[in-house]
Design goal:
The structure is a homodimer. The first copy, chain A, is an alpha+beta fold. The first copy, chain A, folds into three domains: 34 residues, no CATH class; 254 residues, Bira Bifunctional Protein, Domain 2 (BirA Bifunctional Protein, domain 2, 2-Layer Sandwich), CATH 3.30.930.10; 101 residues, Anticodon-binding domain (Rossmann fold, 3-Layer(aba) Sandwich). The first copy, chain A, is 29% helix and 25% strand. The first copy, chain A, is built from 14 helices and 23 strands. In chain A, strands 5, 9, 10, 11, 12, 13, 14, 15 and 18 form a nine-stranded mixed β-sheet that branches. In chain A, strand 22 and strand 23 form a beta hairpin. The longest helix of chain A is centred in the middle third of the chain and has 21 residues. The first copy, chain A, is elongated. Chains A and B meet through helix 1, helix 2, helix 3, strand 3 and strand 4 of A and helix 1, helix 2, helix 3, strand 3 and strand 4 of B.
Chain lengths: 479, 479
């Protein structure tokens, strides 16, 4: 154990004598002498989350103006105290939503790292000079937030980072073909000055995006990387239990020669997708010629049309950016060659909202299992009710789950609002969508205590002993 | 298992027949019929990190302009491929640095949640209107980045979020005293238009900060919360093994009546700290009257002076902001009362750089143990050397550590550059500061294989059998 020397702040005593001298003494070592830092490596324990203390403001549920441009996920997220509007298209993510987003980010990390992705973090402030070199400073128009620093240098708030990452690679003069493919990604806040922000997190001005950039030594290798990322996107959406579709897409202002979008089919979706039942061809309608009614691939079948929420977008860029910034590598013949690039986006906050959009009912949130902010909500009996003595069983349960099941560490919430009936709290739990709701009621008072367990994803209710409950919960997958 | 219907993208085949049809077929289900998503919950496995593939560009180590305004941590971080300069005061965080930062954030999460902190995320775009209400729109001057959206509405990029969080609380009309103290915090990117960014991550224009805001029902309760946060800050710095000091500080443009700074004593520090050896009083010199040479508390002792790097700052705000935004709660008498606030900042990227500044030598990085990007680096024998047959022992070791020691999952790097000597790779490992370097060399060829283990924090070298090595490593604390 290292010797640490701390000096404490005893001035507190002179400033506010009564209160603070006590506080000061309790927590600080007030003699300026060396001492062992005995707690140097003690890990603190987080208290059990209590519903009464969770900041998930219920009055925001009703009081907030939702406005015209609304959709199910936005309404539910506002009502459930998951988000709160700040400026148009900019939201506060409240604690439950942030927990969910952090899980999604861990899932994305797993998938991106499994295909060799390395995580970086690039500045939000991007120099205009870089964007002028790629020609996008003009091209992006009003969609880009622009500003000047105190020296009147122009910047934008990065909506995407092709320029920045290519410049980074170009600065590395010794990149070898042996290091390729190189896949760099980040999960950061992005900015886009939407004309009309709407649908909550689905079309905001400030949002979280995962953007990955790939560098390869040949077109074939780059297309292989492209496919591997598409595959990872599909697997991610599969793991979330979402129905999705991959379609041919427009390259827009990113550029390149090949592009796909990943969509969740949904009525609120802003894109029209056409799918051929015969050969499987599918495309965003904006990539087809106007009025085209037959499949351009098999020419026979009529299209099925669907609306979709775009949650991912992939681009094969070729050397569009690497040529501008001179991002080269040394090839097997020891000569400089141009990197062949791809770029790949996932809307992080958008996936969150879109999955609630497609999984929830009008008034009850349903999460992709892995993304539920908490997996289990335990309802102790109502205070003063016949079952009220069973409250200690509820407390034991929280402890047991925390100690015995590593997958559910920090995942159990206690709805301690025991002034409310079980029924009222059950209604709240149903609306908020905890995957497992455990009621400690009358049946917990029997000689062999039994708990009522509602599995909200399936809608089933079962009655289980403590051991059977722990067994059930030990299978809950978390990330 | 849910039935999922995917439509695949077979258009690929017509666009680029040779390459992509293969890719397309391999990874996509090309018949638009319903099927089971068999891999829906399979968790992917990340490959073992190989030094040859880690993006930690060595040429950035020498090629980059460090400039005049430099310090040890900046130079080491640039040379080791941890960061790369983008714009003045804005850095790319490269993969190793990002891993370290993510560990620091997990540690901060543990400490903040242990004292009841709930994590949120507030927009970077803050409406000028809010800042005008608090009077800080003018006060902040050129330090604040300002911009307009496409409708000519004024915003700033939040350097701090007192206004935003108080407005959030004010919008909750039913906050009860029973819900207090309420501690909301976030770890997000902050922006400050420094006149002269310098010292790498120590004084940047875009950086990560943890900012927490507390709401209490009385001054006494608020001061108790204030103390509990200070205590958590101390514990965090203890867990990092850093020598720190807490001093009385100026309230600056945040305001309030009581403030403290947490410093790491270091020559490069920009603050002058005075500490009384007699009574323990300590203060930032800017809080004392000019020319004061005796301790204002005990009036006897001479001061000891030190320079410090500020890594944390706490403010007791009282009702300064809650009055402006009318952030009230319902008290025990069922009447509205004004929340009593505090705010608490930790420089996340600054702690990272500051700890390298104080722990490293001129040419070798030393990390706080918990923050090392990887805990273990394994060096297999040089290709073609006498020991080269022991390479499989190195591979077994990587597998074993990954499978047997949960604390080291993902924490082991293999330096596969076996064209280089052990000595050359050892030098690199020493410079980059992996806490444990394991050499699989000559002694691994003996009948009872022995590995050379360098514990870089202590500088010790020991020779251990496989089991003794696993035993040693099982005690490595990670976060």
């Amino acid at each position: 154990m290292e010797l640490l020397m701390h000096f404490c702040q005893c001035k507190l005593r002179t400033v506010l004598p009564r209160t603070l001298s006590r506080v000061g003494r309790r927590n600080h070592h007030c003699t300026p002498q060396s001492f062992h830092s005995v707690h140097a490596s003690s890990k603190p324990v987080a208290p059990t989350p209590l519903v009464s203390r969770l900041f998930q403001p219920s009055n925001l549920r009703e009081g907030q103006e939702v406005g015209d441009m609304t959709c199910r996920s936005q309404r539910l997220m506002l009502q459930a105290g998951l988000i709160h509007l700040s400026n148009p298209g900019c939201f506060y993510y409240l604690p439950a939503a942030l927990r969910s987003m952090e899980k999604l980010v861990r899932l994305i990390d797993e998938e991106m790292q499994a295909i060799g992705g390395q995580k970086v973090d690039m500045p939000a402030l991007c120099a205009a000079e870089l964007w002028k070199r790629s020609g996008r400073w003009e091209l992006m128009g009003k969609e880009m937030f622009r500003l000047q620093d105190r020296h009147n240098i122009d910047y934008c708030l990065g909506p995407t980072h092709e320029e920045a990452v290519t410049e980074l690679l170009a600065s590395q003069s010794t990149l070898s073909y042996k290091q390729l493919p190189l896949l760099l990604y980040q999960v950061t806040r992005k900015f886009r000055d939407e004309q009309k922000p709407k649908f909550g997190l689905l079309r905001g001005r400030e949002f979280y995006m995962k953007d990955m950039y790939s560098f390869d030594y040949s077109e074939e290798a780059a297309l292989h990387t492209y496919q591997s990322v598409c595959h990872a996107y599909g697997r991610l959406l599969d793991r979330l239990g979402l129905r999705w579709v991959q379609v041919q897409a427009d390259t827009g202002n990113i550029g390149g020669t090949l592009s796909h979008e990943f969509h969740l089919p949904a009525e609120v979706g802003e894109d029209r997708l056409l799918m051929c039942e015969n050969c499987g061809f599918s495309a965003n309608v904006e990539t087809l010629e106007a009025g085209q009614t037959d499949c351009p691939q098999c020419h026979t079948a009529p299209f099925t049309e669907s609306k979709g929420i775009e949650v991912g977008h992939t681009f094969y860029l070729g050397t569009k950016y690497s040529q501008v910034f001179n991002a080269t590598f040394t090839n097997a013949q020891n000569k400089l060659a141009m990197s062949v690039m791809g770029c790949f986006g996932l809307g992080v906050t958008r996936i969150l909202a879109a999955s609630l959009e497609v999984l929830s009912s009008e008034d009850s949130i349903r999460w992709p299992g892995l993304l539920a902010p908490y997996q289990v909500c335990i309802l102790p009996p109502k205070k003063g009710s016949k079952a009220s003595e069973a409250v200690h069983l509820a407390e034991d349960l929280v402890q047991n789950i925390g100690n015995i099941l590593p997958n559910l560490k920090g995942e159990v919430v206690m709805d301690d609002r025991t002034q409310l009936t079980i029924g009222k709290r059950m209604k709240d739990a149903n609306r908020l969508g905890y995957p497992y709701v455990v009621v400690v009621g009358q049946k917990a008072m029997e000689e062999n205590p039994v708990f009522e367990v509602v599995c909200q994803q399936s809608g089933e209710t079962v009655f289980l002993s403590r051991d059977a409950l722990l067994d059930l919960l030990s299978n809950v997958e978390t990330v």
